[in-house]
Write a structure and sequence with these properties.
Radius of gyration: 15 Å
Number of strands: 11
Number of helices: 0
Order of helices and strands: EEEEEEEEEEE
Largest sheet: 11 strands, mixed
Shape: globular
């Protein structure tokens, strides 16, 4: 069953289901969104909540999109008062666990968009798991 609901209120995270849920895969994605940036920006960030609905661990190892040159899993870190990003090689989800990608934390780093994306647009990103599962997710662009 797929749920789609584009509602988001700035600073209030209403629990909405956006984009993908794969009953066969047992992995679902909730509230998938990309932050809108000014025209000409070469980097964007994607956020979501991943949920492992299976009885076995799931490991997110990569992401890709025809809408961007490169998609990487990143984590924001603060060291000596300076924020920076480091690449994360994978995200492990134990059985029944959720993992939230949020501003200031883990996120998908979306490099070199192939077109200008505005609030309300959608962009498709494929999540790739160690098991071979590829989960297509539609992310909403938000201000």
């Amino acid at each position: 069953m797929r749920w789609r609901h584009p509602v988001f209120v700035c600073l209030i995270f209403a629990p909405t289901l956006v984009a993908a849920a794969s009953e066969d895969a047992g992995v679902s994605v909730r509230d998938a969104w990309v932050r809108e940036t000014p025209p000409g920006m070469t980097m964007m960030a994607g956020y979501m909540e991943l949920r492992n609905n299976t009885s076995r661990p799931q490991v997110l190892v990569a992401a890709s999109s025809s809408g961007f040159e490169t998609v990487m899993i990143h984590r924001t870190i603060v060291k000596d008062g300076i924020a920076g990003m480091v690449r994360a090689s994978q995200i492990e989800l134990t059985s029944g666990a959720s993992f939230i990608f949020t501003p200031g934390g883990y996120h998908l780093m979306l490099m070199n968009p192939k077109r200008t994306l505005r609030a309300g647009d959608r962009v498709d990103i494929n999540l790739e798991f160690r098991s071979g599962l590829r989960l297509p997710v539609s992310f909403e662009v938000r201000q």
